């Protein structure tokens, strides 16, 4: 940001002003930490004070780090919502709250169930080991019919896992790893088959890319998924553009779903308009089909009554609410779901990351230097404007992106709690917390890159070849 406004501050919205103040506060802290010349620091502080004054004049509110203006109204499918209601659908996530989406309200809106202590304890008893830290920390926070899955498991009845990836870019970011890390754990502790759908057809329909490019991205993303460590004998990865044309069972289920969902229903669920291409309108049936075991006769020996468990981010839930509504009408069991929270962008938890913005996240192709630079420069801070204020009042872990990322990737519960206490008390400074995150992410990404190098085109082909897996049905 320049030391003088590059446009008339009066023309900025309250949220834009808030972002300008936040950015300038980060700049002041960086200059002080870097021991910049006094006149440069003084000029940056004057600009910060000027921006804060403009913010108060415009909004009538004092600027508070991590608390955006309260007058932001979000729109969902053309309908005005309450000020504090979040916009969440399969393509958009937006909230006015720097803490991120209000997941308790989302559970009520979507009609799912909270993953509570009782359910976590039941999972622990079923698998005979400590639950994944994603469960313990509420990263996977909501479910549909997980009790039924545990009933089946305890009664020696089979189930399988289904998750997916929309290949919108060649490089995945660390947020994309979350469902795959958790799915891998689920597969290992329950010892069940897994199918992974690559929706290259969806990306061709929604994005400005060729069908060849969508397919290429699918195969490149498959390498990153395989590098997570999935067992080739228990995992089938498929591209829609490939598999849909070769599996009669899959296509039959697509058509069954299509017959039982009206155009008005998909418009209501997904916000489609009369101007959307018919490919978009019919796509939800393709994402629904892997929920049914008969879509994979080579794996399940033609059996149709095997329940499916789907770990996914909660923005994908509309697809599966539709699927669960249709399932009984086509003689199929309803899929169960485990929902995760959204992985925040480096700039804050108010939106999802964009694969097209290289600074919105840490990508799996980033070098150690790039990771360090991104975190230091772009990770939204819950710290105070000055070291003195931070020491006195402490930082806000609820909005600090570095702490949020550590919640996902730092497995040591005691260490995470120590960091939270130290940052909240003001003992730990923002730069020091960012350093911990850098030291956590650099080896994690480097290890992933080494595993990915071992994934050849031949291995990808083996994972993506329809075949019997190491299970008897």
UniProtKB/TrEMBL annotation:
Which EC number(s) are documented for this chain?
6.1.1.2
Q: Which CDD domains does this entry report, sorted A to Z?
A: TrpRS_core, WEPRS_RNA
Q: Name one GO molecular function term.
A: tryptophan-tRNA ligase activity
Known SMART domains for this protein?
WHEP-TRS (SM00991)
- Which Gene3D superfamilies does this UniProt record tie to the protein? HUPs, S15/NS1, RNA-binding, Tyrosyl-Transfer RNA Synthetase
User: Superkingdom of this entry's organism?
Assistant: Eukaryota
State if Membrane is listed as a keyword.
no
Q: WHEP-TRS domain: which residues?
A: 13-69
Q: What is this protein called?
A: Tryptophan--tRNA ligase, cytoplasmic
């Amino acid at each position: 940001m320049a030391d003088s406004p590059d446009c008339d501050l009066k023309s900025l919205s309250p949220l834009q002003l808030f972002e300008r103040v936040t950015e300038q506060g980060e700049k002041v802290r960086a200059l002080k930490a870097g021991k910049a010349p006094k006149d440069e620091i003084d000029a940056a502080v004057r600009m910060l004070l000027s921006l804060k004054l403009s913010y108060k004049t415009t909004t009538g509110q004092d600027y508070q780090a991590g608390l955006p203006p309260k007058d932001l109204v979000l729109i969902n499918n053309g309908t005005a919502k309450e000020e504090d209601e979040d916009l969440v659908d399969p393509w958009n996530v937006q909230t006015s709250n720097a803490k991120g989406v209000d997941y308790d309200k989302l559970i009520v809106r979507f009609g799912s169930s909270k993953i509570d202590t009782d359910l976590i304890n039941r999972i622990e008893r079923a698998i005979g080991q400590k639950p994944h830290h994603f469960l313990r920390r509420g990263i996977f926070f909501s479910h549909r019919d997980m009790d039924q899955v545990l009933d089946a498991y305890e009664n020696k009845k089979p189930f399988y896992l289904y998750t997916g990836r929309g290949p919108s870019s060649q490089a995945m970011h660390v947020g994309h790893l979350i469902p795959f890390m958790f799915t891998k754990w689920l597969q290992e502790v329950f010892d069940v088959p897994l199918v992974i759908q690559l929706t290259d057809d969806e990306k061709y329909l929604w994005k400005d890319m060729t069908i060849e490019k969508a397919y290429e991205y699918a195969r490149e993303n498959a390498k990153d998924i395989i590098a997570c460590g999935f067992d080739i004998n228990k995992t089938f990865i498929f591209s829609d553009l490939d598999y849909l044309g070769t599996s009669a069972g899959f296509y039959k289920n697509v058509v069954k779903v299509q017959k039982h969902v009206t155009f008005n229903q998909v418009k209501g669920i997904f916000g489609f308009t009369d101007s959307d291409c018919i490919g978009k309108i019919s796509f939800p049936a393709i994402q629904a089909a892997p929920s049914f075991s008969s879509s994979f006769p080579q794996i399940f020996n033609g059996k149709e009554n095997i329940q499916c468990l789907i770990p996914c981010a909660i923005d994908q839930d509309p697809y599966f609410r539709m699927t669960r509504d249709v399932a009984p009408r086509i003689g199929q069991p309803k899929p169960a779901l485990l929902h995760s929270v959204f992985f925040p962008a480096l700039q804050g938890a108010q939106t999802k990351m964009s694969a097209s913005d290289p600074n919105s996240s840490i990508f799996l192709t980033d070098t150690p230097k790039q990771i360090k630079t991104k975190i230091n420069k772009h990770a939204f801070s819950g710290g105070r404007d000055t070291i003195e204020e931070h020491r006195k009042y402490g930082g806000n872990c609820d909005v600090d992106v570095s702490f949020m990322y550590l919640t996902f990737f730092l497995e040591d519960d005691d260490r995470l709690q120590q960091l939270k206490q130290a940052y909240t008390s003001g003992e730990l400074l923002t730069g020091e917390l960012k350093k911990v995150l850098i030291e956590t992410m650099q080896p994690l990404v480097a290890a992933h890159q080494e595993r990915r190098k071992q994934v050849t085109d031949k291995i990808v082909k083996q994972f993506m070849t329809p075949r019997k897996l190491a299970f008897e049905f």
